[in-house]
Write a structure and sequence with these properties.
Layout (H helix, E strand, L loop, with lengths): L6 H4 L9 E2 L7 H22 L9 E8 L3 E8 L3 H4 L5 H13 L5 E8 L7 H13 L4 H13 L5 E8 L8 E8 L8 E12 L2 E13 L1
Amino acid sequence: MGQKINPLGFRLGTTQSHHSFWFAQPKNFSAGLQEDEKIRDCIKNYVQKNMRISSGFEGIARIGIQKRIDLIQVTIYIGFPNLLLESRTGGIEELQTNVQNKLNSVNRRLNIAITRIEKPYGQPNILAEYIALQLKNRVSFRKAMKKAIELTEQTDTKGIQIQIAGRIDGKEIARVEWIREGRVPLQTIRAKIDYCSYTVRTIYGVLGIKIWIFVDEE
């Protein structure tokens, strides 16, 4: 009984909604997916390039994409908007131009909006990024996981599970370490669970971080 399933895909249509909204003919579907990937990669690269060097923190929770015939609407859900806007004036206009050039679509306009998230440390992507930053700075993995759990306790989450896999602390043999606080009912479909999987490159190899956050039960 070792089969695993992505908690987000498992709950689509009940407690989870899609991050991309658009329709396409079967033959154009793969092109649409690649376009989404290009948009997300371009935004993340721009934020990494232009954020404050001292923070080293993107703070993007997720990127929502809606496509119509003549418009692509992109919404960036971000925990710390000043990371994107503080570096220069007209940051969003420049980002919009960069993404438009990358897509090479003449017939469709691109519109990018930024939405501020009230409690950023309740988002698994931002939390995974925080842990990755700690691991890169050679902080002990147990200390990083405990600190991340302390940060989520400030939000209204009911449970959290964090897992780190790889050559932890530079040991010869790769292993998996995990910690859980509260309840995380992965088999209950009506339980709203946020999940993310994040890769971090350290000087002693690649580590994988997985985070499950139990938000609420419907």
